[in-house]
Amino acid sequence: MSATSAPPSGKFGSRIGFILAAAGSAIGLGNIWRFPYTTGEYGGAAFVLVYLGFVVLIGVPVLLAELSIGRASGKNPVGAFRELDPGTGKGWTWVGGLGVVTGFGILSFYSVIAGWTLSYLGRALSGTFASTVSPEESGRIFGEIISSPLETVGMAAAFLLLTAVVVRGGVSGGIERASKVLMPVFFVILVVLAARALTLPGGGEGLRFLFSPDFSKLSGEAVMSALGQALFSLSLGMGAMITYGSYLEKKEGLGMAGVSVAVFDTGIAILAGLIIFPALFSVGAKPSAGPGLVFVAMPAIFHSMPLGQAFGAAFYALLAVAALTSTISLLEVVVAYFVGERGWKRERAVWAVTGACLLLAIPSALSQGAVDGLGKFAFEQSFLDLMNIIFGNVSLSLGALLIALFAGWRWGAQKALDEMNGLPLGGVWALAIKVLCPIAIGGVMIYILVTGNFF
Ligand code: PHE
């Protein structure tokens, strides 16, 4: 490995450390913020089932493909495709390039939402949610936060800065150590909150919404969103798992690691659903409220439980940490590219990318009420929603399609399987990555293009 391509931060120290770091990338706002509001928007249980189907049939195979590509090459996404392409070594590098651009795009709007969690943390600590907060009151507080230019831009900037500081220090030390402690704590808090939410009066209605499907509600748009959600939530389609795979020791088997990450991630999304939907229905709020859903719904739980204020503060603090372990992986992909391919110093790459990302984050931050023109920017969508659709859905789907084609046909399924070190049901994986993933992802994308009702 040449000096420029070696990860300056070294390898992960242990297998569990890697699993937690990869799970840390996967688990984040995608589970707690995006999963519930998309589920709410597309009518509940039927959407959830399609999402679960995509996690198993597409998510797990593509996750394993990304990890093998990363470890076999030991490189950032762009370098990885060049290294493994048996041909001229040029044609596929742009798939990695697409991933780098996508990571940058996601980071820009993701840090805005992550900034909202910081705002909520501040309010939880100062006791705003200590007394009864009606849905109207809760909505008003949310509106106040997102329409203040200073607060949304400031908090997004603060979050990006936090991310930059960690990524500057390198992957294995900080991330690995922090994830080991904080992820389990987050899980425990979520279980306690779910127990409370499920016993709220009227909470059962929320369970029905989440688990009793009405397939007549499924549109092509809902299916595309379920695909995007499965990929987004597992951090797939843009090279985050390629990059993390490249930091993994050679001897580790990849199968169990990949499956554990998928199980943790999906479990946390469902757990978030078990908290948010019962809470929503118990206060009579609508599940289709859009991106503000979680922020408006959660205070209803905190004021109804003993030590609610402490739980509230802990929830937002840990959500911020979960978001941070995801933004770290997003920034890491872009930084790994500049360090590995352009020979930049890590420090310079971190600050240049963070600065540029903040510029792109500003219109997203201002699009939620602060500046009218950005609220309905194009296709009736706000700037933030548009970024979410383009980078967090379309671009990830395209990336996952190309990664599946590369692993299955170009690099070759057998080489990937060799890299995985004895994957049980390897033949099933090969079939999924060669045939099922391309047909399913391609099929959904073509359907959306033809019917044209996605935006
Ligand atoms: N998976 C992360 C989440 O659910 C978001 C993410 C997407 C991170 C793509 C990295 C790459 O919050």
Describe, in plain words, how this protein is organized in 3D:
This protein has a single domain (15-451), classed as Hydantoin permease (Orthogonal Bundle), CATH 1.10.4160. It starts with 14 loop residues before the first helix and ends with a helix. It contains 19 helices and no strands. The model is unreliable at 1-8 (pLDDT under 50). It has 455 residues and is mainly alpha-helical. The longest helix is centred in the C-terminal third of the chain and has 38 residues, at 383-420. It is globular and about 65 Å long. The relative contact order is 0.20. The chain binds phenylalanine. Phenylalanine binds at residues 25-26, 28-31, 106, 232-233, 235, 238, 240, 326, 329-330. Phenylalanine is lined by residues 25-26, 28-31, 106, 232-233, 235, 238, 240, 326, 329-330.
List keywords for this structure.
single chain, 455 residues, mainly alpha, Hydantoin permease, 19 helices, globular, disordered N terminus, binds phenylalanine
Structural topology:
Blueprint (H helix, E strand, L loop, with lengths): L14 H12 L2 H13 L3 H29 L3 H8 L8 H33 L9 H12 L2 H21 L2 H27 L5 H8 L8 H14 L6 H7 L8 H28 L10 H5 L1 H4 L5 H35 L3 H21 L5 H4 L7 H38 L5 H26 L4
Helix pairs in contact: 1-8, 1-12, 1-15, 2-10, 2-12, 3-4, 3-10, 3-11, 3-12, 3-18, 3-19, 4-5, 5-7, 5-15, 5-16, 5-18, 7-15, 7-16, 8-12, 8-15, 9-12, 10-18, 10-19, 15-16, 18-19
The chain binds phenylalanine.
Phenylalanine binds next to helix 1, helix 2, helix 10 and helix 15.
